# Entry
Amino acid sequence: MQSIKYAAPTSVEDAVAVLAEYNDKARVLAGGTDLIVQVREWGRDVDVFVDAKDIPELMTLEMDSSKGLTLGAAVPCHQIYNNDAVNKAYPGLIDAVSMIGGTAIQGRASVGGNLCNSGPAGDSIPPLIIYSAVCNVAGPNGTRQIKVEDFCTGPGRNCLEDNEILVSLSLPAPAKSSGAHYLRFIPRNEMDIAVVDAGANITLDGDSVSEARIALGAVAPTPLYLEDAGDAIIGKPATEDTFKEAASVCREAATPITDMRGTVEYRKHMSGIMAMRALRGALTRARGGDLNAH
Ligand SMILES: Cc1cc2nc3c(=O)[nH]c(=O)nc-3n(C[C@H](O)[C@H](O)[C@H](O)COP(=O)(O)OP(=O)(O)OC[C@H]3O[C@@H](n4cnc5c(N)ncnc54)[C@H](O)[C@@H]3O)c2cc1C
# Structure
């Protein structure tokens, strides 16, 4: 049995000071749905939990019609999908936060924790990438911003430096005539890790695609931003044939591994399929449609 201290700072500065005092033996605790499992089951070496939930900047959920969304790193999923304005503006993020774990997990789990855990299949990461989200980070040397697509550096690794904390995520206001969708393919219809997951965000100019961002998860050491796949369809009609071009770039760019959830060949094939599905969903939403309508 491991004895662990608990700190509940009420400011970012105090959190950074505790992190600096214990150095690599301190971990930020958001929902704890990854961290507590890692400490209890895997014996991860931690001396102190630094609870994020008393720090106002980490618990903020602020929508501004011109600036977009400021999402505190420790805001639990249920608060995100129960917010009407966020539901309306960022349905691709809602797709993800309403599928992480189940209701109990969503009561604690945060998007910041999902990102900082930096799993290749972390469900909230592709939606953050397609919405051009930026990480607001604070540390002993001040504050800095990092694009989400640059944040993860390997399985379970990211570019946070010693004693830095993710404070919040900034998501720009969605463009007019844009729509986004995120979905995953899992081996069974219960809680599991994705075989492949995909997100797409497109903006229409009439019937043509004027902007496109596509991301895949579970097919590389980190979630992938597929800039070339998006660029391949800009200026083209929003049709199945056009989307197939993006899907083909996705298939080629995927560098998955074989594991119990699928082989390399299967995952590459599914990368194209999931990119197509994400693009179709994004198109429906860009045209004002409802993906849940039957
Ligand atoms: C039963 C179960 C089902 C799950 N299902 C899914 C699923 O479907 N999809 C999925 O993606 N994940 C799933 N997970 C994993 C987990 O729930 C998510 O990754 C969750 O979003 C983590 O958020 P958290 O707030 O609990 O993070 P925590 O566990 O609190 O933290 C995770 C890691 O990030 C660090 N961290 C947290 N916040 C910060 C911060 N602000 N600054 C710096 N570092 C920070 C912590 O120190 C820790 O290393 C599941 C977990 C369980 C137990």
Notes: The pocket of flavin-adenine dinucleotide is lined by residues 27-35, 37, 52, 58, 73-74, 99-101, 105, 108-110, 112-114, 116-117, 122-123, 160, 165-166, 191 (CB under 6 Å). The mean pLDDT is 95. The longest helix spans residues 264-286. The CA atoms of residues 36 and 202 lie 37 Å apart.
